[in-house]
């Protein structure tokens, strides 16, 4: 069993961890509608309070924080676990936000309707080397219906938003291969890891597979659902796995390298920091913890 050190606890469904140069971790507390900085000693500071459901985070080329806001969930406590689900009565709409880390000011960069696009529940985000970013829209679930959603590309200056991949089965985690040539996306309910060949900034091969743009790379057996993901320096894809919980490490060829088990059925995301990029930070959202462990391989340094 992997040894984990709890860095912070009492968080309200943490997600979207970003390791910062000063050793702190930025993350969201989705249920609380806030963005939090966790200092190395475990103390926390509120960075911003965008409300709704802040989810995936990434630092952009301008040094600001970009946030996928899913608009919120219903929550209930079940045997000590905080569990999200469904579209809340106060659903505030999906959007992409840009946040000033110095002041906490929140700016809506993209919202539903911009450039003819529909945003329901933006979930996870990754910047490419060209200064643009990919993000997934997980959609929202209501009684007897669920949104059909896609994967988007946008510019950080607010000048372009495009739904590049549609449909996608409730996409969640997203990441780029070390050379930027492959886009990976994890679908939650199908528990599939999809691969897309990037042909230009914000473009993918739309004829790659029988079903369109993407090809299925990996799908596990058992009671599992895929959440967010991170990429190792080697190119392995580390997918946070809900249910039979942990991190599924998958090679670019689609083989399971290993499964790193955790004790929280809502294991939702992973990032890396430290001088050697082997300090792995994992969000255990059901129990409200951020934990750290030494990873056997280095994580990939992000574009910004």
TrEMBL record:
Residues 13-284 form the SMP-30/Gluconolactonase/LRE-like region domain. InterPro entries: 6-blade_b-propeller_TolB-like (IPR011042), SGL (IPR013658), SMP-30/CGR1_Lactonase (IPR051262). It holds the Pfam family SGL. PANTHER family: BLR2277 PROTEIN (PTHR47572:SF5), LIPOPROTEIN-RELATED (PTHR47572). This is SMP-30/gluconolactonase/LRE family protein. The lineage of its organism: Bacteria, Pseudomonadati, Pseudomonadota, Alphaproteobacteria, Sphingomonadales.
């Amino acid at each position: 069993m992997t040894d984990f050190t709890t860095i912070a606890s009492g968080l309200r469904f943490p997600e979207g961890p970003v390791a910062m140069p000063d050793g702190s971790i930025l993350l969201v507390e989705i249920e609380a509608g806030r963005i939090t900085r966790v200092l190395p000693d475990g103390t926390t500071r509120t960075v911003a309070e965008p409300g709704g459901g802040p989810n995936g985070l990434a630092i952009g080329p301008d040094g600001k924080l970009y946030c996928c806001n899913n608009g919120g969930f219903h929550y209930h406590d079940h045997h000590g676990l905080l569990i999200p689900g469904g579209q809340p009565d106060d659903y505030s709409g999906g959007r992409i936000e840009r946040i000033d880390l110095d002041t906490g000011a929140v700016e809506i960069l993209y919202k539903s309707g911009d450039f003819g696009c529909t945003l329901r529940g933006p979930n996870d985000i990754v910047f490419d080397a060209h200064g643009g970013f990919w993000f997934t829209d997980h959609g929202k679930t209501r009684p007897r219906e669920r949104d059909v959603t896609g994967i988007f590309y946008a510019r950080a200056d607010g000048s372009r938003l495009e739904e590049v991949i549609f449909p996608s089965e409730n996409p969640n985690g997203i990441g780029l291969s070390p050379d930027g040539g492959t886009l990976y996306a994890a679908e939650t309910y199908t528990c599939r890891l999809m691969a897309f060949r990037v042909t230009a900034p914000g473009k993918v091969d739309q004829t790659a597979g029988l079903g369109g743009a993407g090809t299925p790379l990996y799908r596990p057996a058992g009671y599992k659902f895929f959440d967010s993901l991170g990429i190792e320096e080697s190119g392995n894809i580390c997918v946070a796995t809900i249910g039979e919980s942990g991190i599924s490490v998958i090679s670019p060829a689609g083989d399971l390298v290993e499964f790193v088990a955790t004790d929280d059925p809502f294991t939702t995301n992973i990032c890396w920091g430290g001088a050697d990029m082997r300090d792995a930070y994992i969000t255990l959202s059901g129990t409200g913890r951020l934990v750290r462990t030494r990873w056997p391989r280095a994580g990939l340094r992000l574009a910004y």
